[in-house]
Specification:
single chain, 99 residues, mainly alpha, globular, binds zinc ion
């Protein structure tokens, strides 16, 4: 990818925390239903589509350090909403795969 720094500060640690959750939920959902295609193309499609249907949720690298409890991270993550987006993306890609 491109540049991720400004004025000498590295910004590569600023991540969309929905990405991690999408991957976790994709694993769950794809393991539930083995009939879903899990080729490289479909996996990428489901991942991109899920994230495009969710608002980004970027946190600074200090977020985890300054919040003593994992609870705080769970509080900002809307697991139900992310799961719904992943399920919708999975169904969409599965019923109309790119190949
Ligand atoms: Zn496929």
């Amino acid at each position: 990818m491109g540049r991720k720094d400004i004025f000498g500060f590295d910004l590569s640690e600023i991540n969309n925390i929905n990405e991690e959750l999408v991957i976790e939920l994709m694993e769950e959902i794809l393991n539930e239903d083995k009939s879903i295609c899990r080729c490289h193309l479909c996996i990428e499609d489901i991942y991109a589509l899920s994230l495009n249907n969710l608002p980004p949720l970027y946190v600074q690298s200090t977020f985890k350090d300054t919040t003593s409890q994992d609870n705080d991270l769970t509080r900002v993550l809307d697991r139900e909403k992310v799961e719904k987006a992943v399920r919708e993306a999975t169904n969409k890609v599965n019923s109309n795969p790119y190949h």
